[in-house]
Amino acid sequence: MQSIKSIVTKRFGIIFALLSFIVIITVTFGFRQLSIDNAKDKATAMAEVIKAGLTAHMKSGIMDNRDYFLNEIKSTYNINNIDIVRSSHVNKQYGLSTIEKEITENSHSVLANGKAIFNVMETMNNASLKAYIPYIASSTSTLNCLECHKVSEGTVLGVVEIDINLSQYKNLSMLYIVTIILFLVVFIIFALLKSIKTINDYIVKPLEILIDRFGHSLMHHTKIDTNHFKTKELLQTVEDVNKLIEHIHTKNQELEIKNIELKDLNIEIEETLKETLHSIGMIAEHRSKETANHVKRVGRISKLIALKLGFSEDESELIYIASQLHDIGKIAIEDEILLKNGKLTPEEYAKVQFHAQIGYEMLRYSKRKILQASSIIALEHHEKYDGSGYPSGKGGDAIHIYAKIVAICDVLDALNSKRCYKDAWPFEDVIAYLQEQSGLHFDPKIVDTVVKHKDEIYDILVELKD
């Protein structure tokens, strides 16, 4: 993830680099063209000087000094070479020159049409301008060529070939280009540093302050101070953020109220469910002529044992509520079997045993945690540790711990209570029986817990006595 500073720096760098490239190219070609134009002007001026000098030499009758004159001009004005090409008109009038040279194609062209030609010759190490300038007869100038030459006005008398060294212009051009490049580099560095400082002062730091103050303002419900922000955009942003904080605070207050209402509603639902389960449990026990306090005692003792076994308060409370439906399946058993005083036949006993499966089927489809626990207890509270119980013959750790706790509490209270078919057992006899069934009917660990806390269990039995 890139920072604003790095992004802007890169973008500015690219823009400045492009601008610098354009400026350098423009200046380079502009200076080159300017140098060439200056060289052309110089060549034209030299040609006029040469024409005047040759005319003067001719009128004075000292043409044998022509070469000396041309050499002086070359050395004085840093000219590589000067050549004079005579036209056929001059050769016809004065005869061929003592020094004849091959006429170049450019000179032929100038002799033919009277227009100057300039050629720039450049190599890696050298540069020069080849100028081919016509010498045109005229009576209007101070030279008055027609006095000496028997030609008409405008006749091309010859060509002045001048080879000017442009190295000094090239070197000067390079010096200017390097200077411009250095200037642009310094300017770019300065511009970037200034841009970075501006971005840092007006964007990065204010944003960091805004982010830092946002969390504090959101937590303490205070507005963000606008004194740290200097730009119009950031001031508007801070105002929008302050409105957002106010809106969030308002929504949080509404949410807190809704959460309180929802919590109260959940508590009410849980309490209603507990009361409903307790009432259903009492109905089931009432059908079998057992007291409502049997359900309460089993629940209270089950919660006590769960706590002593290390279960949390919430889970122990869950076992307490869920245990009250352990015999809910008895609702489906016929009265003549459920209320029979005598011994049950094998067929009748099988029907009674089926109440565990019925209770499970009645409760298993609920998604609520309490009813899920109730369905497990209803199904397995008649299973035995040694696997001899019903309905599935589960044993040991295969039996759910909730069912094992409720099973021993159910038997404990049933033996300690009077029924239509039996008298109540003395509490000590009940404890002795439970110890005898340790490892057979009941989980030894739970039996040890019951024996260890039998006094507290006895207090519950007395408190909720029928």
Could you provide a short overview of the structure?
With 466 residues, this protein is an alpha+beta fold.
**Category by helix and strand content:** alpha+beta
Unreliable stretches (pLDDT < 50, length at least 5) are: none
CATH structural class of the largest domain: Mainly Alpha
Q: What is the 3D form?
A: rod-shaped
Q: Largest sheet, if any? A: 4 strands, antiparallel
Helical proportion?
Answer: 55-70%
Task: Give the count of structural domains.
Answer: 2
Mean pLDDT: 82
Distance between the termini: 75 Å
Count of alpha/pi helices: 16
Please give the radius of gyration in angstroms: 59 Å
Q: Give the amount of beta strand, in percent.
A: 5-15%
Explain how this protein is built:
It is a single chain. The chain starts with a helix and ends with a helix. The protein has helices at residues 4-60, 66-77, 88-94, 105-113, 167-220, 232-287, 292-308, 313-322, 335-338, 346-353, 355-363, 369-380, 401-416, 427-436, 444-452, 454-463; strands at residues 79-86, 117-122, 127-136, 156-165. The protein contains 16 helices and 4 strands. It has 466 residues and is an alpha+beta fold. Helix 7 packs antiparallel against helix 16 (454-463), helix 11 (355-363) packs antiparallel against helix 12 and helix 13 (401-416) runs antiparallel to helix 14. The mean pLDDT is 82. The protein folds into 2 domains: 4-174, PAS domain (Beta-Lactamase, 2-Layer Sandwich); 264-463, Hypothetical protein af1432. A 4-stranded antiparallel β-sheet has the order 1-4-3-2, sandwiched between helices.
